[in-house]
Task: structure prediction
Amino acid sequence: MKTMWNKLFDISFFDYEYVYKDAFWLLLIIPILILWYILKENDKGKNVNISTLDNFDEPPFSFISLAKHFNFIISLIGLALIIVTLSKPQDAKDVEKFNKKNIEGIDVILALDVSGSMMAEDFKPNRLESAKKTALEFIEERPNDRIGLVVYEGEAYTQAPLTNDHALLHDLFLGVQSGLVAPGTAIGSGLITAVNRLRESDAKSKVIILLSDGVNNQGEIDPITASEIAKEFGIRVYTIGVGKNGTAPLPMQTPFGIVMQQVEVEIDEKLLNSISEITNGKYFRAKNEKELQSIYTEIDLLEKSKVSVIEFKTDPPEKYYGFLFIGLLLLLISKLISNTLLKSIN
Result:
């Protein structure tokens, strides 16, 4: 109840923005009505020729006359408040907050390897699901960052462009799966696609987190060339190699159904390290989910820079409630006075 009362009477005329400022021209009606009222009152006097004023005392104080003037004044105030309501007042601070704001953050693209080897089960339930889980935890810890998602195997594509809508990003992450495009591991294609998503960013800090569990064996873009391009755009690339040393269990489709086979873990650490060195980033190796989480935690400590963000939420809160309520209340009081106390007064 207290909150509703405060909202109703939250009136601060000069602190508001007015959407329909032309409505204030209607306030010219007020001086016109005042002039009409004065002329009307003066016109009520009648000229009577008398020989003397001796029998006339000072007119007694008229409460009815005072009430009539008071009633006219409150009706004018009520009308003025209704006109202010028509101008659609909004809090200036809220307008700025809802339309555009500066927030602290960085622009990040997550480049995720979704090749068939990411289904290996040395992570539980597998590398891909573990990578998705830890990446989502990273996103939740950075609510002020614009984050996008690029996925790659034999080809690369953008799953989500840079966005502050982390709820949408979460849903898009859940839809990531292996086998949607050509098989293989095109690290260069994944990296250059991520660079393209960041190259027009105005953030001072632009970062790509590239995760892979294999060796570059597909794509027309050489990973080193892609790294040089990233460097030219001031993009740091943090690379993560995923997988245990030795072998890992990988489900394989056979004529007899899915069979678990032990496959060699082959990660081109030299290449991933070169990518990070060229772009002034850092290479990490994750042999289990806990190590992967700690890597994201370390990356989470990156510097933050101001990024201008356009908010597309709801309209700013309206601030006409108090004006409308008081205006209608005053007009109602004026009407009640006219129909009761002043009813017999012409």
